Amino acid sequence: MAEETTTLRVARYRPERGPEAYVDEFDVPYREDMVVLDALNYIKDDLDGSLTYRWSCRMGVCGSCGMMVNGVPRLTCSTFLREFHPKPVVVEPLENFPVIRDLVVDITDFLEKLREVKPWVIREEEKRVEDGEYLQTPEEIDRYKQFSMCINCMLCYSACPVYAQDPEFLGPAAIALARRYSLDSRDQGRSQRDEVLGVDTGIWDCTFVGECSVVCPKDVDPAAAIQRTKVDTTTRGMLAAVWPFQGRT
Amino acid sequence: MWWLRTKAYRRFAAREATSLFAAAFSLVLLLFLFGLSRGRQAYEGFLRWLERPGTVVLSAVILAAILYHAGTWFRLTSHILVVRLGRLVVPRKVVISGLVALWLLVSGLVLQLYARF
Q1: Taking the model in full, what pTM does it have?
Q2: Which residues form the domain of B43?
Q3: Domain range holding A74?
Q4: Integer CA distances (angstroms), A32 to A5, A84, B66, B78, in order
Q5: Which of A24, A74, A85, B75 is most buried, by CB atoms within 10 Å?
Q6: Of A105, A131, A154, which residue constitutes the final position of a domain?
Q7: Tens digits of per-residue pLDDT, A208-233?
Q8: What is the complex's ipTM, to 2 decimals?
């Protein structure tokens, strides 16, 4: 009996061949437990070694292998071929990012935005090592844990129509990570981050389409992070207007 | 026309577009107030306009659109509103049910007021 195969239509772009992207079709052996990334690796190893794409952990942790699979941003390491088989699978580079080669996109813009929100614990003054750790209660961890699950895979940027229209938009993951640190009881840098978040290209650019949360492979719910930050900053602004004597953090 | 591209984007567009019907209902309310302020004849004219078949159809469309729009916001609010009981986060479905129950309760009270006068 002939081996069962499935078809992958892979978007190709090789700048040395010309400015146009094109599609290559590959038939790969099909098994029920194969993911899209397995099929790409098969192509690379056995059919066309020039195919270029990013991947690393193949277990949904590193966030490298995000691509458009049949028009939806997905981690290819956790998207099974059986979801589409026997129909062909269309694999394209993540939308809303410039393509460098084949399925590899330029992530510079995201990395710069990430740096802008200072995704680390900011202290006004560091404790001395001999003074011990910064302790947290389980309740304090609960406040930010969901947002700390972000793996920077950028699927949310690819799903966001606001980012597609306005590349200046800070974007879902950067805002979710800003919230992750601002909610951390050890952090004292919220006002620094609010300066980046509270502008037109920050939280207020978001129209709450909500697709970032739908495609997020780690259930971070960046759309919720953005809306809750809108509520928090507005509440703080209103309180400051009627009661200007409160301590600012 | 990006908002027509996917089903999710179309749902978003429907949510935003139906908000216009809330504005339309405000206009009807304004017409009511204008009629009321300009005396009995104008007010009765407004009531007659309300009873015309075209206006009844318009009111039904406005009602349907506002109900849809309100429904979308119950769902969205459950993303924004986090209700914690100790370390337990109340599930989103429970939050939505609570909001709908509150809405029905308030609507019931308004209906009762209407029946009384």
Answers
A1: 0.90
A2: 1-68
A3: 5-105
A4: 11, 11, 46, 37
A5: A74
A6: A105
A7: 999 999 999 999 999 999 999 999 99
A8: 0.81
